[in-house]
# Entry
Amino acid sequence: MSPDVRRLLQRHAQLRHGPPVRASSDRDVSGVELSPGLRYIEILADWLAPPPLIETAFARWPEPVATRRLLHFDTETTGLAGGTGTRAFMIGAADWLADGRLRLRQLTTTSMAAESAMLRTFAQWIEPDTVLVSYNGKCYDAPLLRTRYRLARLADPLAGLGHLDLLHPVRRHWKGCWENCRLATAERQLLGVVREDDLPGSEAPAAWLSYLRGGSAKDLRRVAEHNAQDLKSLAGVLLYMSALGDIPGASGPRR
Amino acid sequence: MNALPDRYQASDEVILRGPGDGRTLAQRLSKRYASRITGAFVVPGREGSFAPLPEDLPPALANALRERGIGQLYSHQHEAWVATQAGAHVAVVTPTASGKSLCYTLPVIAAAMQHNAKALYLFPTKALAQDQVAELLELNQAGNLGVKAFTFDGDTPGDARQAIRLHGDVVVSNPDMLHQAILPHHTKWAQFFENLRYVVIDEIHTYRGVFGSHVANVIRRLQRVCAFYGVTPQFILCSATIGNPQEHAEALIESPVIAITRSGAPTGDKHVLLWNPPVINPDLGLRASARSQTNRIARLAIKSGMKTLVFAQSRSMVEVLTKYLKDVFDHDPRKPPRIRAYRGGYLPKERRAAEREMRAGNVDGIVSTSALELGVDIGSLDVVVLNGYPGSVAATWQRFGRAGRRQQSALGVLVASSDPLDQYLVRHPEFFQGASPEHARIAPDQPLILLDHIRCAAFELPFRGDEVFGNEAATPWLEILGEEGVLHREGDRWEWIADSYPANAVSLRSVADGNFVVVDRTGGKQTIIAEVDFSAAAVTLYEGAIHMIQSVPFQVERLDWEGRKAYVTRTHVDYYTDAIDYTRLKVLDCFDSSSAGRGHAHHGEVHVVRRVAGYKKIRYYSHENIGYGPVNLPDQELHTTAVWWQLTQRVLDAEFDDRQQALDGFLGAACAIHIVATVAVMAESRDLQKSVGSGDGAWFVSADISGRGQLRGADGQPTSLAADAPFTPTVYLYDAFPGGVGLSAPLFERREDLIARSQSLIERCDCRGGCPACVGPVLAADEDAHASPKAAALRVLALLAAL
# Structure
């Protein structure tokens, strides 16, 4: 490329003049390293007490679901633009152990190349009879992961699984009653959860990108905390909803 | 509507005696208007050449064809079948209405039936895509073939998209959708891509210049995504007549193709007339307007019972001509309209309705922009009138190709406007008759276009190692995108990292994005009545502009530039408006220089500022100028490449009586060089622009109302130079696209030839002191042989000519 062409391109490139990322000595991402660039956090939480069977009438499912089959999941991504250019840099999942404790497992990638290992590890957490639980996961997290598995040339482990997406039942029930139906609102209204020093989800992409470019890991740790609370709230909201029974106005069976 | 009496009744009857066909009308016009016709020739018709249905066609498909009345194929359809079955990429280049679509329909349907193979069709417009699906469905229904075809475009509802991705055997879309919706979501189309066997790209002659360069890169991205899914689809490309179909097809897909160029479809004779409006003022070279002549020819054709299509160069001219014809043929509002306008900017529903009316034969006269040049099915026509030269020989034949039925002779008339290029062509009929159609050219490696598409490609799939995109190693581009912060490099992989969707910021069709909507506020309501391209907005939607839609005038009251909206109200004025715009240039960087006679020629990078300064109000029919209005719009800026010629102050002082004379000479020389250069590199005239200004950008020159050079300062206001100020007038020809699409380099190489041809153009012109066909319009008072603009231009060119 000639210098003339480079100058022309640089003039037209949409160079961002934001503050440069400062190299940081705080590079400590939580968790243990499973493989190069892949961190794993496991937390066992005493959080509510689930019954052995979860009623699913609120979602118009015909039968209850055994609690041990539930896998609550939530991803943290590089943005909302959609398409093949958006990736998950963190996948969190929660399931109930036999002793009634909630097990939170989180995978964080600290390099791009670790994505494939993260996707494989997450796939191992899924059984053929797993029922997914998410908040807007049908429209957002699941398609995004499907795209990532496809790009990594891996089989999509979510294909064909039952999926309880709580956003829609919450909307049907409380739309118009609350200022909005986001998970943070639902957890406050239904579970009385109030977050302190929570990193807003919208700042997650910048936190990861900044770390990737050599910046501080502080905000990335806060993303993990945010994600962990999302998982706990997801489990809590599901228990609340299942106790409600059938919701009037709910439309047809969804599986 | 004005109910004018038909004031032409008497004079028309002299010419019209009984109904006619193309031949008789050509004869009658030639007899009555002999002095206006500068060239007349006949393209003889052709017998059809046929082949039986191929043996290896699936029987159900063969039956479906017979069901539809197709018992044999044209020879070119048969050739296409044989070539596709042999696995080759194919380019089919045959005239309008020669049954091109069967060339790809047969292999695509056969593969879908036998191998569950999928096909992607790309058409340049949504209208063509819809035509095509309708045709496929009819064939499918006739044979109960079970092949599912869908359009996928901006109008496809969200809930239908998933079904189309999974179940469509044939997906009919356009390059813009492929670029913005399909490729950036290719994983959703995984099943489709894994089984993709054919990619059909029709109307490839439209993919040239900037648009074509973008499309070639979209095809590179398509092939990159196909490689990810392990498929290498076969391409079937179709084109109207161009000079280099095979080369162009190969440039688009970057693989060898088999070109099929002999049509087996029968046609009638086609008569062609080149028509120059009569001279009104021979000294000035002033002629009657093309629109008055076009109007007359169309009127005569319609009165003699022939279906007539008029092509106009601009949307506003479509409206003016529609009004003129409606004034004659549609003055009774109780009857359905006989005349219709058709152009971009109407809402899709309105266009579909117009197409249906035309196909049904309910319309006698259609006035259109190039929108109808493409294969939109509007049935058979008898006469095509071109109001002005469309800018290329190929486009002229494509438009003439609209006329013609199998047995009957058709007529095409090219009416020259006062545009110099028109005058050049109409006075050299041998050029037109003998010229092979232009070559379609693309510059897919244009750096800015490449940057756009490497950006989009990186979003679709990461770049690895020393991957090559097109012909270029991608790494330097990736580094720039890395600096920009949208890509992250890790080892030898470059991955997309930004939270943005780059394809949305890249428009294939225009430089700056964002269409303007036209909002009608008449009577307090707010209705969107039209859309206008960004590039056309500054010259058609300024405040005060009369914007016509189906020849109903609306006045622009307010233009919201940032919000891309123009607010209009219905008006009843008797004039239309025409923008006055001018250009100023500054040299940024000189790549190459050489001596040119006693001056110099250069090639390099320039900064261009275009401004719309005001507008003229022009009264209907008399076309007199009845006033001016100011326009206050942001300047449009452009970095691009240019070639330019200069003479030193010392030479100018010695050779010219005064500076004004030298300026006139440069202005005239610029005019001639631009005409010659446009023909030489076969550019679209809007892609190559000219300007005259100071070498240091301090001032520039525009022609004033008398055709003389008027100096203007950087602010656009008229100015004059101090006697001791430096004086280096310069002729610039610049590429009207950021960074250039490769027009200026070949012009620099041919710089000596261009000057020589410009000299001969002016010397051979019949005018005395200068005219629009050589140095631009001049005043009667300027005929003095020594100081005329023509003489001054020749003197400048002589000084620039090789010694």
Q: What stands out?
A: The mean pLDDT of chain B is 85. Residues 224 and 457 of chain B are 8 Å apart (CA to CA). Chain B touches chain A at residues 184-188, 190, 447-448, 451, 458-461, 476-477, 480-481, 483-485, 488, 490-491, 493, 495-502, 505, 589, 591, 605, 639, 738-739 (CB under 8 Å). The first helix of chain B runs from residue 9 to 15.
